[in-house]
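Take a minute with the sequence and C-alpha cells given here and flag any C-alpha cell that looks odd. Thanks in advance.
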Amino acid sequence: MNYLAHAWLSFGDPEILAGNMISDFVKGKKKFDYPLKVQNGIDLHRRIDEYTDYHPATKTAKQYLKEACGLYAGSFTDIIYDHFLANDTHEFEEGALEAFAEKTYDQLDPFKNLLPPEFGRFLYYMRNQNWLLNYRYPKGIQRSFEGLVHRAKYIKDPQPVYDAFIAHYEELKNCYDLFFPNLKTFAFHELLYLRPDRGNT
C-alpha cells in the first residue's frame, strides 16, 4: 500500500503512524534505533505490504498494468489503491479526508528529529503539495506515477501506466473494493498483536 493507506491504517496512533510511514526507509537493524511503538509501526507496515502483495484482488489488479510497466505493477497498484481509498465514502465522509491529511502531517511533525533524512525530504513535499488529499484526483495520481518513474531504474515513461489506469478504472476499483475491507480487518488485528501492552489487556 501507499502513504495514505499506511497513515489510515495506523488507527490514529502517532508513534505507529511514524513507524508505518518510514518503514521503507529503515533497513535491517536500523529498526532498533527507534522507540518500541515506532518499531511496531515499522513491523505493521511490512505486514500490510506482504498481505497486500499476496491478496488475490491485488494479483488481479496488477494484471491490468503489467503490459505497461512489467515488474513495477505492484508499486503502481499501491498508488492506485490510495486513489480509491481517498474516494471511499465508507472510510472518509465529506470533508474527512482533508481533516485527516492535516492531522497526519501534524502528528508526524514532533518526530522530525527521528525521521530518516530521505523521508524527511519526502514529508516536506508531501505536506506542501498535500499528497494525501491529492490522491483523490486523477491528476494527483498522474503526478505520483511521475514521481515513481523518476525514482525507478527500469521504467522511463509513466504515460502508458496512466493510460492503463484510466482504461481499466472500473476493474481496478472492483479489485480495491474486494481487497480493502479485508486489509483493514487484518491491519487492525495485527496492530492489536503488536501492541507492547497486549499482555496487560
